[in-house]
C-alpha cells in the first residue's frame, strides 16, 4: 500500500539508497547549494515568477501561494486543432509566374503572387491543461521561502503559521509519469487543505472514485484525462463536489497524471481513461520512498554528468535569484552563470524526454489558450536552438523527441512538397509546424522559406557525429535525411541573373528580414548554407552505409552548383545572393551566419576571410537583441574565438529585460530557446569539436580566468572527463574515448593526435602532453630537453625563432618535473640553457622527490636580452644513484620569468670519479638524401641490439624501428611524415640518445 512520511528532505537525507543529501534553510540564502533558485515571496499571478517542473510528458508551474497555491499544468500532446494538413491547393501552379517576376527583379509582383496563392492557414497552438489548486486557511504567514533545487529537480515552499512550519515539495517523475506534491508540517496533525483541478476549456466533466478525482476534458480533437489522488499519514479525507479535503493529517501526498488520446500526428484513437488508470494503478503499488528514489535516480543520472566551475562566487551569490540577475552586471558573479547554465540543462530534461513531444517555443509550460506565436514549433531558428545543448551538454536522453518528431514529419512534408513545389520525391518543412506536423508556409510572404526540413535534418547527422559507431541509428534516420536532400535536388532552379547558373531556392526569403521592404527573393545565403550541409551530410551517410550511389551522384552534382558564401561591399557576409545588406539593419535574425554557427562552414582555421566578414556582420547588427538572439550571438562570438565578446552577450542576457525572475528567457515575451542557446554558448566557449578536432578553451573570457568543467561531450564520441584552467591557460584535461575514434585535440598552438581505445581516458597537461602514459627515465648522458617533462604546472611549450621547442610563458610558482636515471652517486654540474625578456632576475630551484632543495639556477636579465637570447646558467647539485624525479620550480616577481631550452647534468670532475660511459660506442646520425622523411644511421656496440622510437613534439607516438649492430632506421618512407618537429629516442642496452629532428 502507498505510504507517506512527514518530510521529503528527511527522506533524501535518511535513505542510504539516495546519492544526494540536501539541506534546506528556512528563509536565509545559502551558497552551500549554489544550484538553487530561491525567493522570499510567492509568484503572485505572474507566469514568469513561477517555478517549473516537468517529466517530458507533463509540465507543472509552481506559484507557491500560501492560502491558494496554483500549479499550472501542461501535457505535451494537448494542442488545438486536429489531424490534417494546411496546404494551399494549387500553389505549385503559380511557381513559374513568381520565379519569372523574381528573375526580372519585380519583387512587388513576386510577393503579391506568393501572398495570394502560396500561403496556407496557420497551424495549431499548444494548450494548457489547467491548474491543480491547493487551498488552506493559513493567514498571516511568516518566514516564507520558495525554491527550486536543480540538483534534485524538486521545488519547495515553506512558511510558518501559528508557530508551525509548513512545507510543500513538488516534483515530476519521468519513470512513473506523475506529478507529486508532498505536504508536511513540523507538528503532527497540522496538515489541512483542499485540492481540486480547473481548466479553461469548456468541454469538461469532473467525477471521483474513492480518494481520486477524475477530470475529462476535450480540446478540439484532443481528449485528455487528469487523475488526482491523495494519500495521507493520519487525518481525515473526504471528496465532495470535485474537491479533495484533508483535515488534521501529519502529512499528505497528492499524485496527479494526465493522459490523452493522441497516438500520432494522424491518429487520435487512444483511450486517455485507460492510460491514466493504468498509470495510477502502478503508482498505487509503490511506496513513497520508491517514487522518490526512482525520480532522483532517473534525473540525477542525467543532470549530474556535467559540472561547471567558473571561479569564486561573488559575496552576493546567496541573494534572492531575481536580485542576482538585477545586479549581475555589477557583480559579474560566475556562480550565476553556472546556475543559469545548469538551469538550461534542467529545463531540457524537464521538457523533452523519450515518449513525449519536443520542447516547443515555451518548452512544456503555457497558461494561455491563445499563446503568443502559438507556443508551437518555429523551425527557422527556435526549435533547432532548443536542441543545441542536447549533444554537447551530455543530454542524450533529451534529443529523442526531436529525432522522432523529424522522422514523423516526412509524410506531411511530402504532401506539401507536391502541392507547393510540384516535387514528387522529397519532403519540405517551412518555418512553422505543430503537433499535427503541418508543413505549409504560413503567415505571409515571409513564411515561404523552404529550408526547415533541411535544417532539422542536420540534427539527425549531428547525433551520429556524437555517436559515430551507431550505424543502426544512421540506417534508421538516413531515409529522412535523404528525403530532405532530394527535395532540394528536385526543387532548386537555375538562376539566370548572375551569369554563374547557380542552383537556387526560388521563391524564398531570408528568415523574417526584408530587402527594401520585400521578403521574397531567390537563393538567400542561409538557404545555400543549409542545403550545402544537408547534401554533404547525406552524401557522407550514403558512403558510410554503402547505399544509393546513383542518388549520391545527383547530390554531388547539385552541391557543386550552389552559390558560395561571399562578402559584400562593406566587407560583410551577404545575406542575399545580391549585395543588398543595410549596415544599419539591427534585425534579431542573423540567418546568413548559419555557416558560422551551428554549421562550421566558416571557421578561423579554414576560411579566415569569411571570418572577417562574419565579424563585420556582427558589428553591423550590434550587440543588443532579443533574448534568444543574444544567445545565438554567444555562440557566434565563441566560434569567432572572441571569449570576451561572447561574455558581453552573457552579461546582456542576464539582465531583467532579457531574463525573467524565474530565469526564463525573455524575447520578450517568454521564449525558452534563449535558455537553451545560452547553454550551448558556454559549451562553445569552453570546447568546440567541429571539423574533426576538439579545440579546448577556444573562447575563454578573461572574466573566467580560473575554473573547471567535466562531462561535456565532443563530436567523434568523446567526453571531457575533466578539464581545468588557471590564469586563462589550460592546466589539465582528461578526455574519455567512448567508441575508439581518432582523437585530434588542440589548445592554442598545441596539438595532439592519437588513435584511441573505447572506454580509455587520455590525460594531458596544459601543453597537451600525455600524463597518464608510462615514462622511462632519461639517461643523464644526454641533454634533458625542457619540454620532455613528465609533469608540469603552468608552463607552455613554444618554438623559438629557429622552430625548436622550449618551455616558456613561465609564471611565478610554475614547475616542471623530469624523470632521470643517475649512473653513480656524487656531485654533478647542472647547466640550464635559459633566456629572458624580463628586466627582473628569477630563480629556478631544483628539489628531489622529498622536497629537499638540491640547488638553484639564476636567470639573469643582464645576460639575456630577449626570450630566445640563450645563455647557459650553472650550479652544482648532489644526486644519489638510480632512477629519480627532479622538480624545477620557477620563482620571480615579473609576469613572465623566462624560457628554458634544455638542462644538462655532467659529473663534477673535481669531486667524483665517474665510471666510463659506454655511450660513446652508441652513435646516431641523420642520413640526408633518403627517400624517407627521417632516416637515421645507428651504430651500436658489436653484437648489441638497438631500438629507435620516433615521437611527435606533442608526444604522439609515430613508430619504432629495431636493428642489430649497425643499421638504418627509416620513418615516413611509404607515407611522408607531416612537417614539424620530432624526437628520436635511440636505445641500446643501458645507453640512450635523444635527437631533435625537423621535417620540412
Q: Could you describe the 3D structure shown?
A:
The chain has 1000 residues and is α+β, with helices and mostly antiparallel strands. It is built from 19 helices and 49 strands. Strands 1-6-7-8-9-16-13-12-11 form a nine-stranded antiparallel beta sheet. Strands 2-3-4-5-10-15-14 form a seven-stranded antiparallel beta sheet. Strands 17, 24, 25, 26, 27 and 30 form a six-stranded antiparallel beta sheet that branches. α2 (95-103) packs antiparallel against α3 (107-117). The longest helix is centred in the middle third of the chain and has 21 residues, at 471-491. The radius of gyration is 33 Å and the shape is globular. It starts with 7 loop residues before the first helix and ends with a strand.
| First-residue to last-residue Cα separation | 77 Å
Summed up, the helix count is 19
| Count of beta strands | 49
Please summarize the sheet with the most strands. Answer: 9 strands, antiparallel
Largest sheet strand order: 1-6-7-8-9-16-13-12-11
Key phrases:
single chain, 1000 residues, alpha+beta, 9-stranded antiparallel beta sheet, 7-stranded antiparallel beta sheet, globular, disordered N terminus
Summarize the structure.
By secondary structure, the protein is α+β, with helices and mostly antiparallel strands.
What is the topology?
Blueprint: H1 8-14, E1 36-39, E2 51-54, E3 58-62, E4 68-75, H2 95-103, H3 107-117, E5 130-135, E6 142-149, E7 154-161, E8 164-173, E9 178-185, E10 191-198, E11 204-209, E12 212-219, E13 222-233, E14 236-240, E15 243-249, E16 251-260, H4 272-284, H5 288-303, E17 307-309, H6 321-331, H7 334-351, E18 377-378, H8 382-386, H9 388-392, H10 400-408, H11 410-421, E19 432-433, H12 452-466, H13 471-491, E20 493-494, E21 503-504, H14 525-545, H15 549-559, H16 608-621, H17 627-639, H18 643-653, H19 673-686, E22 687-688, E23 694-696, E24 707-710, E25 713-714, E26 718-726, E27 729-737, E28 743-747, E29 750-754, E30 761-765, E31 778-779, E32 784-785, E33 791-793, E34 796-799, E35 805-808, E36 815-822, E37 826-836, E38 842-847, E39 853-859, E40 866-879, E41 882-891, E42 899-907, E43 923-926, E44 934-939, E45 945-952, E46 957-964, E47 966-971, E48 980-988, E49 991-999
Parallel strand pairs: 23-28, 31-36
Antiparallel strand pairs: 1-6, 2-3, 3-4, 4-5, 5-10, 6-7, 7-8, 8-9, 9-16, 10-15, 11-12, 12-13, 13-16, 14-15, 17-24, 18-19, 20-21, 22-23, 24-26, 25-26, 26-27, 27-30, 28-29, 32-42, 33-36, 34-35, 36-41, 37-40, 37-42, 38-39, 38-41, 43-44, 44-47, 45-46, 45-48, 48-49
